[in-house]
Amino acid sequence: MLTLLNLLKDGRFHSGPDLGGALGISRSAVWKQLQHLEAELGLSINKVRGRGYQLAAPLTLLDPLRIEALAPIWPVAVFDSIDSTNAEALRAINQGRPAPFLVLAERQVAGRGRRGRKWVSPFAENLYYSLVLRIDGGMRQLEGLSLVVGLAVMQTLRKLGVPAAGLKWPNDVLVGRKKVAGILLELVGDPADVCHVVLGIGINVNMQNANEVDQQWTSIRLESGKNCDRNVLVAELSEQLRAHIQRHQAGGFSVLQSEWERDHLWQGRPVSLIAGVSQIDGVVLGVDNQGALRLKVDGVEKVFSGGELSLRLRDDS
Predict the structure, then answer these.
(1) No. of H helices and E strands in the chain?
(2) Mean pLDDT score across all residues of the chain
(3) Which active-site residues does the annotation give?
(4) Distance in angstroms (rounded) separating the CA atoms of residues 141 and 130
(5) 76-80 — which CB contacts under 8 Å span 24+ positions?
(6) For 214-230, what is each residue's pLDDT tens digit?
(7) CATH of the domain at 293
(8) What ranges make up the beta strands (E) of the chain?
(9) Rounded to two decimals, what is the model's pTM?
């Protein structure tokens, strides 16, 4: 089926006999595969008598060889369809694969965001990216790491045509109030000694419609007005991650703290911090040198951290 998709990805018309000849199958078998492409991958295929079959929009698929040529930083594995790139990365760690390495997918069938939320993952439209790093030297190497990743993602988006991209504590990248990217870090091993961390990143790239998304969202395509080559995006993101992670490893989060605060879209804004059924209202002061959120609550500065916290703008902001 994916061999057929590779023949169609140029967005041109291809006749049934030509496709059947290239695949060594009958025209009826070609028709069945086309139906599978539409049903399983959600692709739209134009069918015109006398002309043949055409993808409604051309596709640029992820190419590990091209990515490694553009940014020869980490070994890359690309999957056509997978439960989630973070899940595959965790399996690879358990199987003893040496870090660092990068896992990408064209589609996730069980993509995950923070606090167990579903991450909508249509085929060949967005970026599903998981980088595995080995962490030596204990907890200091993890302090503020998710915020560092957010900085790298934001800078990547700005370079690729989304100048209004900004940060929302702790793990989102927004344009205004619309989410364009999210980050999910998962840890395996002993954080006091040697462990592995999976930096999971989801970016809305060329997606233009998504009825399943339950929050305001946007994409690189919607913001820039241009189709984005996801291979170029992977290469640029990897370069930005390498540079930001090196700075973090050399000096800790404190060397990036003021930079992160400068690009935090909700700096100085009245917010509500949600933890389960509890809600704390305050004004964002910034983050501390470990990446925890600093809020002014009833005239007193308080610090909050934790993966289950959610930050929302207050209605009066």
Answers:
(1) 9, 14
(2) 90
(3) 114, 179, 312
(4) 18
(5) 76/101, 76/102, 76/104, 76/234, 77/101, 77/102, 77/103, 77/104, 78/104, 78/105, 78/106, 79/103, 79/104, 79/105, 79/106, 80/2, 80/105, 80/106, 80/107
(6) 679 999 999 999 999 99
(7) 2.30.30.100
(8) 45-48, 52-55, 76-79, 101-105, 127-136, 165-168, 172-175, 178-189, 194-203, 270-275, 278-287, 293-297, 300-304, 310-313
(9) 0.90
Does 280 lie in the same domain as 168?
Answer: no
Number of domains within the chain:
3
Q: What is the pLDDT of residue 114?
A: 52
In this prediction, residue 317 carries a pLDDT of 43
Residue 100 phi/psi, 5-degree rounding, is -85, 155
* Residue in the block written with tokens 């462990």: 195
Over 90: is that where the pLDDT of 82 sits? yes
Q: Is the peptide bond before 17 cis (omega within 30 degrees of 0)?
A: no
- Percentage above 70 pLDDT, the chain: 94
Backbone angles phi, psi at 262, to 5 degrees: -60, -30
The pLDDT tens digits for 28-77 are 898 888 988 888 887 888 989 889 899 887 788 999 999 999 999 999 99
CATH number at residue 254: 3.30.930.10
In this structure, the strands spanning 293-297 and 278-287 are antiparallel
Nearest CA to 230 out of 49, 118, 63, 82 is that of 63
Its domain, for residue 13, covers 2-55
| Same domain? 188 vs 282 | no
Q: How far apart are the first and last CA of the chain?
A: 51
Is residue 271 domain-shared with residue 257, that is, in the same domain? Answer: no
115 and 170 inside one domain: yes
Tokens of 234: 């992977």
Question: How far is the C-alpha of 207 from the C-alpha of 198, rounded, in Å?
Answer: 25
pLDDT at 307: 66
What is d(CA 282, CA 31) in angstroms, rounded to the nearest whole number?
Answer: 59
